[in-house]
Amino acid sequence: MSVTGHTSFGGRVHRAPGQRKAASIRDVARAADVSYQTVSRVINSHPSVRDETRRRVQEAIDALGFRRNATAFALARGVARSVTVLTSDTLLHGYAATLQGLEEASRAAGFTLGVRLLTPEDDLDQTIAAVADTGGGLVVIGYDRLGAAALDRVPAQVPCAAVVEAPPPGRTPGRPAVWADDRAAARAATAHLLALGHPTVHYVAIPASTGTRRSAGPRAEGWRQALKAAGVAAPAPSGRGWDAQAGYEAGRGLARNREVTAILCGNDDLALGVLRALHHAGRRVPQDVSVIGFDDAPHSAFVTPSLTTVRMDFQGLGRAAFGLLRAQLDSDRQPPAPDPVATTLVLRESSGTRTS
Length: 356
Known about the structure:
The chain is α/β, with parallel strands linked by helices. It contains twelve helices and 13 strands.
């Protein structure tokens, strides 16, 4: 028996010139004249295979140099030991800390973790199909529009969990997901500034995962809700990005307005830029303007003045998302309760009672 370009059972392997592709389970099946299911039973030591068939399959495996795919082997046993994370960013604190939590949880459970960085130029359907074909499960970090779009495209049969922005009240994502209640956190931060005597609070927004308006997203919604509860009209939000440069540009405009005395920022990187813009404009923090950030990034406690901010347990979100995924991969596991991860308002030097 022989298969052109693969083997002749005289012991010599024949390959086409330049051929480097690894042998597949179907190549072995053709060489041994059996079904690929039979090959699978052989490599998984299933007892229902005749000795002669087992010998023939093993000869084909040896001659072709076939190596069992570890992920396929795990899937055949009902346990996938790999996780791929789809994310559009790995540098911003929230994304990086979520990845850290995912890595810690997957490593502790004996899973390998891979990261696929999404870009606006990607064909999301092709990207997801390529990742799903490797086996295992997916975790999508859906803090932004690109991540949210990727989550919407994951086929229903693919094990998947997500970390997302807080969904609207009464609604839950279509796939198992975890989130922090940043809507309530923004509401509490805004109420704190109002309680300090500020007549209103301006908002420097991060991009939302849905929609294109700066007033969209749970943090913006929480800010507006607190102002409405206090009977205060919401100023137009500013901000065009995630980073300190975007915060600096927004801060320059706010610093020129002497009626601005309190600013809530959608993340700490924006707040860092706002602090610099206020400094350049001669506006003192917190004597002239109070500033609150979001996320409690590592630098927040060490800038001058130290930044009041909302602490988000991103590592906890990552660990919880892995727990949701593992419950899909291991049928004997119960998924964790879908409670929002807690947030904490951390008071530091950048916020204070209005003095001017």
